[in-house]
Amino acid sequence: MALPWALAVLSLLPLLDAQDPACAILKPAPITNATLERLSGKWFYIASVFRNPEYNQSARQIQATFFYFTPNITEDVILLREYQTTGGQCVYNSSYLQVQRENGTLSRYEWGTEHFASVLLTKDPKTFMFSHYPEDELNRGLSFYADKQDVTEEQLREFHEALKCMGLRETEVLYTDGKKDLCGPLEKQHEEERKKENKGSQVNTELG
User: Fold this and answer.
1) Which residue, 2, 36, 60, 64, could crosslink 71 as a Cys pair with Cβ 3.0–4.6 Å?
2) pTM above the 0.90 mark?
3) pLDDT tens column, 75-110
4) Closest by Cα among 181, 177, 186, 32 to 99
């Protein structure tokens, strides 16, 4: 599995305590152009809780993951370029995510099935979360991402508060380890290749 995705369209989170301000972040919100602009760029997969056995098992195999989001606002898609270290090796994957603006979800097809995740924007613009199966006690989950591998206690606190709101425990959290990342060299190689391609395109344009 690449990024962990929920296997069902997400509901309106009926379990949230409307009186608890800390839980407001878990209420689905429509995705806007500003949302997509905020998600654009490089992110690190920091931690997650998955009660769904399949996703929990997959998450346990992930040692480190970082990825790039490149949104196309006019077509409502996001190019995902993902670098995942698992089993002591680097695995690269590129795919497109579909944007469901009104539902506040992203989705992609994997093994013939469309998988959904709800985007949760945190107070800190340098982090965000995905919620999964919030209405299902046995399968719900929450995943946490940041623009750096090393996060602050304050950033983690918001994640931990969200876990509590979903009825998940901190003892269930699986953390990645940036020190085990093996994808740095491949990322650098891809960056150099893109620079050459861009330079070549610029030369061709000038000649044309």
Assistant:
1) 36
2) no
3) 999 999 999 999 999 999 999 999 999 999 999 888
4) 32
